DNA sequence: GAATTTTGGACAAATAATGTCAATTATTCA
DNA sequence: TGAATAATTGACATTATTTGTCCAAAATTC
């Protein structure tokens, strides 16, 4: 649970730390992701979201398991969405139940349609 | 936590149950929300998301505390987003920490910008 | 079986997200 | 210092996504 990658850090901060640890300029990461430098700068600040392909490339570039990066990414989305809401704890607990519920419902129907 | 409203039910299912309990046609709810009937039908199936104003009107129409409806709504969004991901449990736990982190960061900066 | 209700899809309008570019600011280091 | 490189920022066009309306077809009710 307290994996080094994911604990109390945003995806952007993880990116920046990885990049600086390797002394790479934004340009290099940008080239690897095949986007403009400014996009990477914004990603590191949480102002832009990488897509799945970006995540894969980040994982390979920074030598991190893809799943960990994915968790980092998804939890970012949830966190940014809920950070300004008073009731975020309730939301997370209810969401956990609801996910189970949705899955069981879809298993019953034999189809996945999220 | 296990409030009647929120436990293991989607927002749409809650809407439908409330509506049927009162024997209202979609038309009536639609009028109250000021949208087309088909939108309400889709909301009940989770194919359309109500906005904040809709939530307020739903709360008053079905006589439910607004905050409960809000939790129902937000947890729906999270659940639909994560239901198809393998690692949703990790995501929720990391997200919880991250929310605290984001808040403390923004408190320090003295500004809210989510 | 007529009237009402519900469902679903096509469509246009509104909104949000994405990436490129260029200009400005900051940092590095010779 | 000052030239070169790096980082930040905002404007902009483009693309996706979301939203609601309208309409026609099913389904339900009575």
UniProtKB/TrEMBL annotation, chains A, B:
Gene Ontology terms for molecular function: DNA binding
Pfam families assigned: HTH_3
SMART domains for the chain: HTH_XRE
Domain HTH cro/C1-type: from-to ranges: 15-69
Listed SUPFAM superfamilies: lambda repressor-like DNA-binding domains
InterPro entries, per database record: Cro/C1-type_HTH, Lambda_DNA-bd_dom_sf
Superkingdom of origin organism: Bacteria
Name of the protein in question: XRE family transcriptional regulator
């Amino acid at each position: 649970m307290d994996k080094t990658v994911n604990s109390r850090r945003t995806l952007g901060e993880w990116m920046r730390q990885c990049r600086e640890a390797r002394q790479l300029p934004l340009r290099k990461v940008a080239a690897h992701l095949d986007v403009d430098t400014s996009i990477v700068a914004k990603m590191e600040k949480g102002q832009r979201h990488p897509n799945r392909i970006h995540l894969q490339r980040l994982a390979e570039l920074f030598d991190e398991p893809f799943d960990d990066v994915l968790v980092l990414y998804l939890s970012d989305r949830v966190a940014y969405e809920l950070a300004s809401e008073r009731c975020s704890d309730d939301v997370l607990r209810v969401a956990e139940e609801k996910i189970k519920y949705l899955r069981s419902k879809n298993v019953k129907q034999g189809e996945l349609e999220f």
